[in-house]
Amino acid sequence: MKTNKRIISMAMVLLFILVSGCTTTAAPTPDLASTIAVNVAVEQTMAALQTQSAITQLAYEQQHPTETPTLQPTPTSEFTATPEKVTLTLSKDTYCRNGIYAKSPFVTLMTAGQTIDVLAVDPNNEAYYVVEPKHTFTYCWVWGEFATVSGNVASLPVYTPQPLPTPTRTPTVGPDFTASYVGLQNCGADYYLRFFIKNNGSKTWQAVLINITDNTNNTTSSFSNSSFVDYSGCSAGVSEDDLAPGEASNVAAYPGGKFSYDPTGHSMTAVVQVCQTDSGGCNPKVINFTP
Questions:
Q1: Domain residue limits at 195
Q2: Which CATH number is 186's domain given?
Q3: What stretch of H or E contains 117?
Q4: Which pTM value belongs to this model?
Q5: Are 227 and 241 in contact (CB under 8 A)?
Q6: Which of 12, 62, 116, 200 is the most exposed place for a label (fewest CB within 10 A)?
């Protein structure tokens, strides 16, 4: 900058000399050629001064560079509030179940004093869907009766618990039995029929009734007994006082139910009934056969 001041001072001296040399007291008439020469000299001097000043300024800036700050982007806040954690603490041992009902299968027993993370609430705000503490990826429902909740329950999502499974009903076996024809026997001139009876139901049979029709001769016979007795020829065989569930016995329609002729080859129909004498109920089966 001192160099600039020195150049400007020299330029001023030069201009002063030129102006002084061109001014004369002898001739009042202006010298046009001299005036032009002075103006040209002044313009050349000023141009040289400007060029030198620019060079000097450039050199100065190169020796004293100005640090231009780098603009930094303004940080943008993208903070997202973390939902408040909701927990519950049990005051009593409570089953955690896969549903909210007392009959829902339980997953684990949570003990009193445990603090458990809550994920959701049921639509009635009565039960909480929680993380089973001992297994991170196991979830279940805790009834809220013995639970103290910490946190904003209103921020929890609402889950609909799964309903109870539809029970599969096992049909109750009623009074039932099976009956089948076994064979033909005779005692002298008397002929009788034998049957096999099995109790397949849940009641005990205490009596038997057998009505037999010979479709070929159009004759009938009837037999009844309060026990289940088999015969062979003229002799009584195995006898059962009753038929409990699962029991079976051969029954001979004799001496009642006998025929006075040989029915071999005849078309026969028998209505076999077993009864409960204490209730008076009977259950019939119809059998068609040919002895």
A1: 177-289
A2: 2.60.40
A3: strand 115-121
A4: 0.43
A5: yes
A6: 62
